[in-house]
## 1
Amino acid sequence: MSFVPANVLGIQTVAVYSEADAMALFVEEADEAVCLGPAQAKKSYLDIEKVIEAAKQTGVDGVHPGYGFLSENADFALRLEQEGITFIGPDAKIIELMGSKIQSRQQMKRAGVPVVPGWDGSLESVEEALELAEQIGYPLMLKASAGGGGIGMAFIQNPEELRKAYATTRQRAESAFGDGTLFLEKFINNPRHIEVQVAGDHEGNVIHLFERECSVQRRNQKVVEESPSPFLDEETSQELLETAVRGVKQIGYTTVGTMEFIFDDQKNFYFLEMNTRLQVEHPVTEEITGIDLVELQLRLAAKQPLPLKQEDVKRTGHSIECRLYAEDPKTFFPSPGTVTRLVLPEEARLDFGIKEGNNVTPFYDPMIGKIIVHADTREEAIEKMDKALEKIQVEGITTNKTLLQMIVQNSDFQYGEYTTKFLDKLLLVNT
Ligand code: ADP
Ligand code: ADP
Ligand code: MG
């Protein structure tokens, strides 16, 4: 199975980069590259007009926004539309609707999709939050409507904590997303994060490409993902997949996306949010279905219909992805620096952003690469991953490699018995 870069599909590519990424692998691999400006994301990757300028200057037909940065920015999609350049993603209106957790919750409720119990309005004051919290019941999640990447949410156990967290969470959301709108959700006990990959076309067809289990998390952000989920039985799985498709059909969705759900220990599931972009963990889905999701995005953006029907989407075997982060495996503090040595396993699929000699900068997300394996059974996939991890050698910076090894060697993980609290517990036991 091969997943080909766009330029192999016959499409010429232009990369945009910041001064900090001048030596990066993606710059080297693209046919052309344009420097956007200084390292700070606000002055380069997040500067809409600079990206538009680069697109116009090189005469591109379309822009693939990747993940992070402007990938879920409605203003960016709109500006491209105004310039007659295709945004490889949904319409600006859909990004706006689903980018707001409050609005998307309301929308999904209307489609009959169960959402996490909570309050679907924006909080006006801490007094109002305290009053609503009594009605919903503790523990709670205080969340930024515009949140992403695990940023802008706080776990709240009592009124005292809510009082304390209210202003800081609002502030953090304001500075990270330019929008301090907050809302409240019930905290789901023993939660599991399971999401559904979906795809829609311009003719109104929507299909799912099965689920991904993403409960191994640190700071509410994913570290290891797999598919199929070891938690789901056939019946629950079917119900989840059908529910996701129903929700997506209702909004008129014309590209690939992810419906995120949270499960409680009774196998009840609730809609969390939708990501209207390619997901970091998309390779896991590509491995089990054999479908290249980026190619699919390109075809859908060209207004081609979905190339296959639901019954043609088959899954085989089991796939696992590990995110290699440049960070301390215990404290999760980022570890920027120069990678003086990089040895990677040959038997795994590798999606890496760096090569030997590259600098890992402190400016962006510290993920440096992903290791993906596929095997007939979950057991074999775990074994393959364990072997692959063992071969990895990174010098010059600290990585979370030992933590990843600890995860795949852990018996709870091996039995598939883990929730989003798994990593915290694992670290507690081992320190
Ligand atoms: P996924 O849901 O695809 O697993 P993550 O939530 O980990 O993705 O976020 C995808 C990437 O985008 C990560 O590298 C993350 O740090 C980055 N990211 C997500 N949201 C933001 C944001 N609002 N600002 C900057 N980076 C973000
Ligand atoms: P983001 O936009 O940052 O990805 P999400 O709403 O998707 O935010 O939540 C990220 C993670 O936070 C979830 O995968 C889950 O682990 C945890 N989480 C979020 N909401 C809840 C909740 N109501 N109850 C329990 N855990 C939650
Ligand atoms: Mg999420």
## 2
Amino acid sequence: MKISVVGCGYLGAVHAAAMAQLGHEVVGVDVDADKVEHLAAGKPPFYEPGLADVLTSAGATGRLRFSTDVADVAGAAVHFLAVGTPQSTTGLGADLSHVDAAVDGLLPHLRPGDLVAGKSTVPVGTAADLGGRVRATGALLAWNPEFLREGHAVDDTIRPDRLVYGADPAEADDVVRLLDEVYADAIAAGTPRLVTNLATAELVKTAANAFLATKISFINAMAEIAEVAGADVTQLADALGHDARIGRRFLDAGVGFGGGCLPKDIRAFTARAEELGRGESLRFLTEVDAINLRRRERVVDMAVDALGGSVFGKKVAVLGVTFKPESDDVRDSPALDVAVRLKGLGAEVVATDPQGIDNATARHPQLLYTRQTDEALRHADLVVLVTEWREYRELDPDAVGQLARGRTIIDGRNVLDRDAWRAAGWRYVGMGRP
Ligand code: UGA
């Protein structure tokens, strides 16, 4: 099938490459010439495990192209919109200017019967607003939300856990026919496929992220209680997780959630609910956000306590700057935020990360970074683990003890073997653990 993907960020680049890998003929379009050049050369412009291989193998078949010229979408039967919807600079709502620009760019190249399939996460009602413009060309409009996780994006795209097609009832049969052809492999593999109206499909995505954020903030709220009550939130989560109705996943307490999705999506969702006159329905998400942001402060407070009341002039090794492991993404990263706050309090912060240093440097050049974990740890008065990269989880407490000056480690993700660190003479401070 001939497919175009407009927007080649974390979502679009992976989608384009994965669709070509599945046998489709794909053109990915982006306004960023540098990004396009990298992708065309088979080099991902960001870190995503497995993406380089797919870009190279799909590129070698001749089925995958990238371009800065939106006219190159002409001839595709399905056009995926995969542009970003960041938080607006003026409020909590989503900035839809990229979606608008992408649709405007597509319009002159659409033929009757073509399908525009939105993948970007948008406030409910966006598709209805775009419908008139798209349908004036004779093309169809669907919303087909994407649930991929950074760090697992290629696999999540090739083997999604569900497919959601949002369509206007009058167009549903054609939308299903076209998208079933796109996702033929996943459908043959038995992937559940739900056909909904446009508003439901838009809501599925925001509701899913709101639920995940709520689950994380729930366990972080329990961590806050555990901290004063002398309970252990990791054991609590294990015990809760055995109830299949609750489940153990996304119950890891720590420094909280970040990234380019969960934080801005819950804010945009509350803003949209207000617009719809149902602000009270999602007011709890404001609390979810507040709990989440308090965890960053909590880590900073723990650092101040650990250093006897002030971090001023103390060397603090910050392990991790990305919002989660297996990603170079530092958008709204709790880890980077903790590093910046400690620096603001006068600490001599040395931050390290296997993949995130370039992005972190671009955002916060005032911090000192090193790619060498040992260098960050050397003479540190305090060690703070805030992103659970495997190499930090597997640190040997004795070896770290040879490098660091202090003997306190704050485990902002509750991933270290507490007993092993204590046995090696460390003061171990976890999140929501006695
Ligand atoms: C999230 C969703 O999980 C995807 O399903 C969705 O498609 C994506 O947003 C999106 O909207 O595009 P992602 O942002 O890649 O994916 O990250 P997650 O794996 O959801 O993690 C988000 C944050 O929550 C990370 O900072 C992670 O460290 C934190 N987290 C996760 C916790 O603090 N505790 C947990 O138990 C789980």
## 3
Amino acid sequence: MDGGIWVVGEIRGEKIEPVTLELLTRARDLCKKISSPLTAVLIGVDVEDHAGECMRFGAKKVIVVQDKVFSPFSETIYGRVLADLAKRWRPDIILSGATERAKAFMPISATLLETGLTANCMGLDVEPDTRTLLQTRPAYGGNLMATIVCRKARPQMATVRPGVFKARPVEGDVGGEVEAIELPDSILDNPFILEGFEEKAEAQGVPDYKNAKVVITAGRGVAEPGWIQSLQELAELMGGVLGATRPVVDMELLPRYAQIGQTGQIVSPRLYVGFGVSGAAPHTMGIQGAKIIVAINKDASAPIFNLATYGIQGDAKEIIPILVDRIKQEKGIN
Ligand code: FAD
């Protein structure tokens, strides 16, 4: 089988990463446009168990490469294995989530395949006649979105930011074939010996921004320790997480991981509330998936009002205490 779109799946612990299912969903639509097959590629230890889930999200075939050598993770081995598979089957397109792992092994595969790689895409489409992948990502400091094409080399390779597409299972019958592959030992020989992983201190206790249902965001308009504390309280009262714009993080009022936007967290909550946030493109790129956007800003001409479902023109510093008190009252908290 030559051609087609591949989605390289990622399994963390026992679970498939949500971005794999998001990409399968998008790739399914792209495959329809170019009448091509959709294949998931699972590389790792005991990954075959996840083949059915890939099929539920549209894969017609799942290529499985299982070996103990894949744990602990080595980008060199993953990169080589993926390149070897791509040389055998020659897919048109290879996609993967822009996860820490994929950011390490996809460039290795691309180099071995002598092709290009567009990292951190936020949009994907395909030209039906040429099967050219249209890879959209922020450029020039987020001031414009560039669509990148790879006209000559194949496969076309891209990593896509988690949370950009919505995962949607296939309706009706699903099914497909699993092909288990054994690779030559030479590919699996690891030139590096990994002695272990140490989790970064700052990775511990990081709120789950990706799956948060409510995201409260502090902008420069409320960039003072007291207001950040009040918004933290508000986020907790609403069962949500507290994020921030870049200036707030630059002022060290919240940790770097709290930054929402193009160079931070991509969120898709049911409710986003921005306090003193202007709505600059690099920030709003991270909130496109929010169902309801509420903006509170003093300036009626702030760009965030163009995006907001509900806009309140007013002083956030007057509104925050009212909201906190009102929610406490509703919840019977003194
Ligand atoms: P400002 O733009 O300064 O807006 C503050 C707003 O608060 C104003 O609209 C003002 O009217 C309002 N205000 C002031 N006082 C009050 C008050 N009392 N009550 C109500 N409203 C009030 N930014 C991100 O957030 N995330 C990113 O990932 C990101 N990535 C970037 C990447 C690059 C390469 C670059 C160049 C920039 C990036 N930025 C990012 C920065 C981005 O361009 C904006 O500068 C930033 O988002 C602006 O943050 P802000 O809205 O808090 O501040």
## 4
Amino acid sequence: MTNTKAKIGIVGLGLIGGSIEKCLTNTCKYEILTVSASQGRQHKLEDLKDCDLVFLCGPQGVIYKQLEEIASLQAQPESEFFQNTIITDVGSTKQKICERAEELGLKNFVGGHPMAGTEEQGYDASFPELFGGCTWVLTEQSARTRLLEELIIIDLGAGNIEIIDPVTHDKAVAAISHVPLVLSIGLGNLLSEVPQAKKFIGPGFKGMARLAKGNQTLGKEIITANRGNIKEVWKIYRNYVDSFLDIAGDNLIEEIEEVKTVLQ
Ligand code: NAP
């Protein structure tokens, strides 16, 4: 009986890619091939040609270029490159990446987004438990995504997989992830405007402003890729806060209680 291990490729060993690698290495279930400049790994993207599954874990701008490279290798006459490989990514927005994959005619691409992270970056910050209990978004569920789904839940320890189309995903993450990032940056900026407040900072402010301390390259990419949705959600937020500040007396208590029930 042959006992061939599934071959998994990971491209980019930063916080997310490094955490996937460390976790999958611990399971000893897979043959793992990694592409990483910072960690001096010997493989190039094309060496992953016969992997069962490849995770693209770089910044979004880099993912676009890698999709182009894979599509061009796939399309060569009688190509042996990536013919049976599921290609997935971990980028924080999905619409532009999925559109690009479709334009390129990329075979077997499934968009992905683990809803996990810290404000740290790079391989040294990565750790195998990062995805424990998290939601992992995929843009498709079908027979071909079975290995990917098993690996996400059983090996990486995600709590659940949500299947969602890229447009709906980007609107949703604008509300739960990207507007909070913008708010956090705005709070940080308040300290330049009201410098005397800095010496009174406590855990509440620190918690609210934590996201502003994150990876600025990813912050730039997220805001650039999802600016339209972020602006729309921001308008809803601003209108609500403006009207909230006009509520008086016991109605304020009722309003706060109502919001608490939404958050439960
Ligand atoms: P990171 O820690 O900065 O790692 C990104 C890695 O991408 C780098 O370590 C590097 O890997 C590679 N890379 C960077 N610039 C590159 C370039 N110009 N060309 C080729 N490779 C390059 O970032 P991360 O937090 O892991 O984020 C990676 C992806 O996950 C992003 O698309 C982000 O949107 C998404 N994401 C992040 C979070 C989060 O909270 N951080 C959460 C969900 C999704 P090597 O040096 O190993 O080549």
